[in-house]
Amino acid sequence: MIMFDRKTVRDIDISGKKVIVRVDYNVPLDQELSVTDDTRIRLSLPTIEYLKKNKAKTILMSHLGRPKGKPEDKFRLDPAARKLEELAGTEVRKFDEIYSEEIKNYIDRDMQPGDIVMLENLRFDPGEKSNDKDFAASLASLADIYVDDAFGAAHRAHASIAGVPGFLPAVSGLLLEKEVETLGSLLESPERPFLAILGGAKVSDKILVIKNLLDKVDTLMLVGGMTYTFLKSRGLEIGSSICEDEQLDYARDMTGLAEKNGVGLMIPADVTVAREYDKDAEKKTVASADMPHDWMGLDIGPETEKLFSEKIKQAGTIFWNGPAGVFEWERFSHGTEAIARAVAESGATTVAGGGDTVAAIKKYGLTASFTHISSGGGASMELLEGKLLPGIEALEKK
User: Fold this and answer.
1) Which position among 306, 316, 355, 362 bears the catalytic label?
2) pTM for the structure as a whole
3) Catalytic, out of 7, 82, 93, 202
4) What are the backbone dihedrals phi and psi of residue 61, each rounded to the nearest 5 degrees, phi first?
C-alpha cells in the first residue's frame, strides 16, 4: 500500500472545532424522492463518526444531480440527510439554504460539539461549478477546518473542492485517503500478474488510461462498446455496432504499444449480436471475425467468457471498469455477469470502479467479494491516467 502524502483528519486537532466536510451524496433517488442506493452515504460514515467521536461540529456539504444553478425541489438534499440519520443513528439538521447569516449564527452559537448539520445542494448556486471565490469564501466562513471526503468529485475544480481550501486548513477524510492509497498501489506495487478489464461504450472516454495502463499491466482485456472500434481497426466487419471512426488510428497505435511492451491485449473472440438495439431483439452468437453487416454487438460471447475467465483466475491483481455489454437487459447481461463472477472468485486483489460496473456487481450480489469498490468513476480514471486531481492538490502536504 502506498502512503498518502496529504494530511488527514487524524493529523489535525478537530476537538471543538467547526469542520466543513465535502462529501459525495450524489445518490440515486426514486420518484418518491427516496434514496435507492445509499453506498456513498455509508462510505462517508467512518469520517463522520471520527469527527463526532472527537467532538467536532460537523458541517456537511454536497451536490446532487444537475440542477441549473438554482433551487429545484427534486434535487434537494433532504433524502440524503434522512438516510444519513438512519445509518449514523444520530440527528442531522438539514438547512434549506447553502449559506445564510442564520446558518452561520446557528453553527457559532447553538450547535454543540458532536452535532451534525447539512447544507443545501451546492449546485443550487452557479458559483459552485465556476469555482467563484466569493462563494467559496462564504462556505469557508462557516468553519475552522476543511475536510475533503468526496473522492467521486475530486477531479472537479469546483468551489467546494478547490476553492474552500484556499481559506482554511485543508485535510483529507478517511475515504479519500483510502481511495488514493488503494488506486495508487495498483500503479506502484500491484501483485503480479496485473490484469485490467476496461469496458464501456467509448474508446475516447479511456484514451489516456489505456495508454497509461499499457505501461503497468501484464494483460489488458477490452470489452463493451469500445471493442468494436478495435475490431474495425484490424479490418474486421462490425456491422451496425457502435464505433468511433476517429479513434481507429489510436486503436492501432495501442495495439502496437501493447505488442511493444509485451502486454497481452485481449479482445472478444466471439460476440452476441442483435438485429436492433432493443431489449427483446433477436440475437445470436458469432465469431468476432464473422459479424453480419446489418447486426450489432451487444455482449461478449460464451467462448470469450471462457477465455477471459481462465485468464482472470491466473491474476494477482485485477482492476475492472466498464461492463461487457448492455447488462441492464437480461438477454445481453450474461457476459458482464460472467466477468463479475470470475473476478469475485479469482482470489486476487480486486478493485472495481465506475457507476455501471458497481451497479453490475451489486446486481449479482458480489459486492462483499471485491477487495475495493471505488466511489469515483471519473476520479478513479483520471488518477489511473496519472493526473493530479484538484481535490487532492488543494490539501495540505504532510
Assistant:
1) 355
2) 0.89
3) 202
4) -140, 145
Q: How far apart are the first and last CA of the chain?
A: 17
Query: Pairing state of beta strands 296-300 and 270-274?
Result: antiparallel
How many Å apart are CA 286 and CA 300, to the nearest integer?
Answer: 10
CB contact at 8 A, 124 and 70: yes
Tens of pLDDT, residues 194-216: 999 999 888 888 888 999 999 99
What's the gap between Cα 385 and its chain centre? 14
Q: What is the pLDDT of residues 8-63, one digit of tens each?
A: 999 999 999 999 999 999 999 999 999 998 989 999 999 999 999 999 999 999 99
Assess contact for 325 and 332: CB atoms under 8 A: yes
Q: Which ranges of the chain would DSSP assign to H, the alpha helix?
A: 39-53, 78-88, 101-105, 133-140, 174-188, 207-213, 226-233, 248-261, 302-313, 334-344, 355-363, 377-384, 390-393
Asked about 40 being catalytic, the answer comes back as yes
| Cβ count within 10 A of residue 261 | 14
Q: Are 226 and 202 in contact (CB under 8 A)?
A: yes
What's the CA angle centered on 174, arms 169 and 178, to 5 degrees?
120
283-301 residues labelled b (16+ CB within 10 A) or e (exposed):
eeebebeebeeebbbbbbb
Sorted by where each starts, the structural domains of the chain and their CATH numbers stand as: 9-176 (3.40.50.1260), 183-384 (3.40.50.1260)
Question: Which grid cell sits at 141?
Answer: 466562513
**141-190, pLDDT tens digit by residue?**
999 999 999 999 999 999 999 999 999 999 999 999 999 999 988 888 89
Catalytic residue, chosen from 6, 17, 18, 40, is: 40
Average pLDDT over residues 241-258: 96
Among 250-259, 271-280, 329-338, 382-391, whose mean pLDDT is lowest? 382-391
Q: Would you call 355 a catalytic residue per the annotation? A: yes
